[in-house]
Amino acid sequence: MAASRYAVIGQPIAHSLSPRIHPLFAAQFSIELSYEAIEIAPAELAVRLPQLHADGYSGINVTLPHKATVAALCESVSERAQLAGAVNCLKRSDTGWVGDNTDGEGLMRDLARLGIAVASQRVLLLGAGGAARGVIAPLLALQPKELVVSSRNPWKPEELAERFKGRGPLRPCTHLALKGDHYDLIINATSAGHDGSMPRLPGPLLVSGGSCYDLSYGKAHAPFAAWAQSQGAAKIADGLGMLVEQAAVSFEIWLGKSPDVEPVLAALRNS
Ligand code: NDP
Q1: Which numbered atom of ligand 1 lies nearest the CA of 131?
Q2: How many DSSP H helices and E strands does the chain contain?
Q3: Which of 46, 58, 153, 248 has the most CB atoms less than 10 A away?
Q4: pTM higher than 0.85 for the full model?
């Protein structure tokens, strides 16, 4: 029997680690699976997605720049993906694609794996882009004492507070207005690290013994890691664990099996 076909689509796509992660998951269950990285330009998405269905693909991961636009091409979209305003996982149905978002669940699992608590904690989320939007509802579901969303652009946190109104104690803020605040957990969901920078923040913001988590990984993690160290963080984590955990959620959606993330994470870190 031919191996089931899976893929990640985006542009650019060569950097994606997903084609390394999923075969390692599949090997844990002796499942035959092919997983490709397919570059698709935004203008081609509406034509290529039905083609991938016709070609028999069973599941697709979606990355930039298609996460927000692919929903319109799905026959249905999960509630969490609608809330996040982004789809990163497609499961084949007989007639089309069912969209979901595994990023939020991926972060929650990684925080749990690392023993970083959210319940009853004061949590600061830096950044108000697509990734921030995807993690707010699951963070609020863990019942933090307060979740403050802060961004360079003062309007974006306001819009997010409106979007997630009634789901928990979410407070929009600007970076400057954080002055004098102290948080148990600070999560970096900005993309500043990709250009080697760190958002400008006012003074100490972390309680003694607090934790810092960065959605970025690799070289992009370095500026936040240095800042977290200067804040005296007891735990500092990058987003590689979230990446592997969100992939595990996709794998579960597609194949109904829960892979062990630890050996896969170790393999990625060792390479
Ligand atoms: P977006 O482009 O949607 O949002 C980026 C955010 O970063 C915006 O709030 C933007 O601020 C802010 N920002 C960018 N540059 C700076 C800067 N120099 N100083 C301060 N703020 C800045 O990106 P995403 O939300 O999709 O991604 C954010 C990060 O999360 C990326 O590094 C991405 O790789 C990572 N990520 C990791 C995942 C994982 O599995 N580990 C999954 C998804 C994302 P403003 O609004 O003011 O422009």
Answers
A1: 25
A2: 9, 12
A3: 248
A4: yes
**Domains 4-101+242-270 and 104-238 belong to one CATH topology:** yes
**What are 217-245's pLDDT values in tens digits?**
999 999 999 999 999 999 999 999 999 99
Long-range contacts of 159-166 (CB under 8 A, 24+ apart): 159/128, 160/128, 160/132, 160/133, 160/136, 163/83, 163/133, 164/83, 164/136, 164/137, 164/140
Segment 160-171, tens digit of pLDDT: 999 999 999 999
Fold of 4-101+242-270: Rossmann fold (3.40.50)
**In the predicted model, is pLDDT for residue 23 greater than 90?**
yes
User: Domain residues of the chain, as ranges?
Assistant: 4-101+242-270, 104-238
User: Ligand 1: which residue has its CA nearest to atom 36?
Assistant: 215
67 an active-site residue? Answer: yes
Tell me if 244 sits within 8 A of 261, measured CB to CB.
yes
Ligand 1 nearest atom to the CA of residue 127, by list position: 9
Q: What percentage of residues in the chain have a pLDDT greater than 90?
A: 98
Q: Whose CA is nearest to atom 41 of ligand 1?
A: 239
Second-level CATH architecture of 104-238: 3-Layer(aba) Sandwich (3.40)
Mutating to test ligand 1, I would choose from 190, 201, 215 the residue with most ligand atoms within 8 A of its C-beta, which is 190
264/202 Cα distance (integer angstroms): 37
Report residues whose beta carbon is within 6 angstroms of any ligand 1 atom: 103, 106, 127-132, 151-153, 156, 189-192, 194, 197, 199, 215-217, 220, 239, 242-243, 246
Neighbours of 2 (CB within 10 A): 7
| φ, ψ of residue 22 in degrees (nearest 5) | -65, -40
